[in-house]
């Protein structure tokens, strides 16, 4: 039995090691999709274009009974997401349009970029958390919770969502119950619709390795969810400014909403993948890879990024090397820079 337990542990560790031994695994859509995703495309055939998705560009016309148009960027259409545990979608609403109550097997974060909507979710205690969102607002929906969005403005609305799974699935509750082959009598019987749905962090207590302790559910309000293994950031660039080369312990997906930037990453074979992005373009950066963004436009630029971790960390490489207590001698040795360049960098950061 002990040997059998060791075997299973070994198999588990082997599978985890295999999962992280590649910088990325762009899905080969010419092959069948397996339980763990697609097989990897031959790295020799991978180009920067594989990491950029342009399907969010332009206007989208809501054209269904719900008054919405949903443009998915899951691994089936954006194979760079394969194996990275992250995906996106664009939601366009006609006036009065809705995304009906639905669920995913992942957490979701929504960013409103146009119009005004009511968004919310319902937990398994049947408590609804909903709020009217304005442009720039962000709301999170915990994993597997029923949630919805309604355009309550007098103009069309647009939102982008990020989900912490490459193929998070989408199950519309009304469609599942009433558009399939479920008999009416069973639907009637089961529509008397089921431990902890979410954990809003209690910032008054110390943070442990597993995150914060949970806030008392009785004190949780909708406002706690407006601003689960997912996080976001907004990047604003002055003309000619950059986000210096950096890394996170998570994968990242970037959506450009203003201006034009060059974005890219460098894999562990020292191959760089970079491209000029325009408004509406999306680029994905694999977990732990060094990456960067540069405003190459004559006007300011803005991007929003989503990361598939609640605390993904940020390590700026130049800052790490030259702004801390690392001695100039060691910095010189480990960067192959000249002493003069090392001291120049440390002077910039005030640590010379």
From TrEMBL:
Positions of the Cupin type-1 domain: 54-199, 215-343
Principal localization reads: secreted
Alphabetical list of Gene3D superfamilies matching this protein: Jelly Rolls (2.60.120.10)
The protein's matches in InterPro entries, at most eight in alphabetical order, are given as: Cupin_1, Germin, RmlC-like_jellyroll, RmlC_Cupin_sf
Sorted alphabetically, the Gene Ontology cellular component annotations on this record are:
apoplast
Keywords in alphabetical order, please. Answer: Apoplast, Disulfide bond, Manganese, Metal-binding, Secreted, Signal
Signal sequence region: 1-19
Keyword Membrane in the entry? The reply is no
Which residues pair up as cystines? 25-40
Q: Has keyword Manganese?
A: yes
Which residues make up the binding site for Mn(2+)?
Answer: 102, 104, 108, 147
Q: Which residues bind oxalate?
A: 104, 108
Quote one Gene Ontology molecular function term: manganese ion binding
Q: Where in the cell is it found?
A: Secreted, Extracellular space, Apoplast
The family database entries (SUPFAM superfamilies) matched by this protein are listed as:
RmlC-like cupins
Q: CDD domains of this UniProt entry?
A: cupin_OxOx (cd02241)
Q: Which family does it belong to?
A: Belongs to the germin family.
What name does UniProt use for this protein? Cupin type-1 domain-containing protein
The organism named in the record is Chenopodium quinoa (Quinoa)
